[in-house]
Amino acid sequence: MDYDVLVLGGGIIGSALAYELSKYNLNIALIEKDYDIADDVAMVNTDIVYDGTECKDGLMAKLEMMGNNMMEELTSKFNVPFIRTGSLVIAEDDESIKTIEDIYLRAKRRGIDNVNIIHENEVYKIEPNLNTAVKGALYSENVGIISPYDLAIAYAEVAFDNGVIFRLEEEVLDIQKLATGLKVTTSKNKFTCRVVVNTIPKDFYQIDNEKPYDKEESKILTYMLLDNEYKNYFSNIVFSLNEGSKGYSLPTFGGGLIAASITNNVIDFNTTLNIVSELVGDVDSENIKTMYHSRYYKDNIIIDDSDIGKGYVKVIGRSYAAVTIAPAIGKLICESITNSLKSTIKKNFVDKRRDFYKFKELSLEEKDEIIKLDKRYGKMVCICNQITEGEIVDSIRRPLGARTIEGIKRRTGATFGNCQGAHCLSKIVKILSSETDKKLTDILKDSKSSKMLLGRIKEFKEM
Ligand SMILES: Cc1cc2nc3c(=O)[nH]c(=O)nc-3n(C[C@H](O)[C@H](O)[C@H](O)COP(=O)(O)OP(=O)(O)OC[C@H]3O[C@@H](n4cnc5c(N)ncnc54)[C@H](O)[C@@H]3O)c2cc1C
Questions:
Q1: Ligand 1: which of 145, 323, 329 to mutate, judged by most atoms within 8 Å of the beta carbon?
Q2: Are residues 419 and 283 in the same domain?
Q3: Residues 162, 311: one domain?
């Protein structure tokens, strides 16, 4: 057999699983079609860590609770930004009060602590900038924000350092059952293995002889990212139950605010602006850094390990809370596989991510020390977020280092400031080109067909 376990798909779920499996004496590879791990994990650097209160499905609630409970330890071990901001589900009328009472009772039945119904004046004490007329709210102290890309890349880096092979730019074409084990055919190779875990959300292969799940109910989520000069900053995550302005808002690690609306169809800029203004107050278009549309998945994720005896496990579906539940899914599937293969714990497993500097968080003395060691930390590349050349070079040279501009942006936070890269993008392209010894015109944004520079328009002496 080429491998004991093949993990298909390098999203946050595949990366979490690779990390958990790397604690065992197993020969593991992860296959990902893109240039980088967790390319699709997030549009911005902040996601919500839910607590199992909001979801209707009991099993999903358990996964959310388990994931939520694991976050403190994981994020402090991996140096990943995570804050328990708290969340408010605001009720603006009697019907919504009834809804939050039902959610509260369900949370109690599920054994979720630190969730309470609070009255109007308490709501404004907790969130003074809220300018909607509320009658009450469901307040949870458990809910928080996390940097999803940091978590995914941390999982993958530690797995890599503990021997997992990452096969990037390799697309899985088919999976077949053999007399013993399985065969995975990719765009570059054919591999045999004892167990396959398929975390690719949509694809179906020969082994999936019947499509087990093809329902993909989704709505449209529109994000407006407001800059850190927006006057009505919320420090909690705020959800609105109001049908006309259904959505939520969350503070971001960059100091700004995400205002999101959930609608049945794609909506234009002005409609989005009206909806989010109902929740976060009048938004001046000057404060809008960017706007994105995406699918908002309600579906439950199913872990199908009914074929574990044949060596096949599949994670089916998509969820709006996949980041929250990824740690729980990784742990549960790992347990199932290691029990089935009777695997033993690896004695020399190193549960640590290689150190890196976040320059702007250091004291002046620490900054001086580092610049003395490496003068590239003295060269500021992203002025808005204070990211230095040293950090950009490190993000390329690290285990599973960045090979694209998006990879650098997500690892360092460069270009996510108020200027959105207007000042630093060209410098980053230059650094990546020199670090990887590639021509400037060969530098990619994130995928094969995403060249940053299409070609030279004139023959300059220097470019
Ligand atoms: C707008 C938005 C907001 C969200 N907000 C939150 C939030 O606040 N909190 C939260 O908990 N979650 C949130 N989520 C959910 C979460 O970010 C994603 O659902 C999650 O990242 C999905 O992870 P995954 O590993 O299941 O799938 P993916 O990230 O889709 O990973 C699957 C991987 O498989 C690869 N792949 C696909 N086909 C092949 C192939 N044939 N061969 C090899 N590789 C292949 C893909 O390139 C991909 O990297 C949000 C999602 C969206 C879209």
A1: 323
A2: no
A3: yes
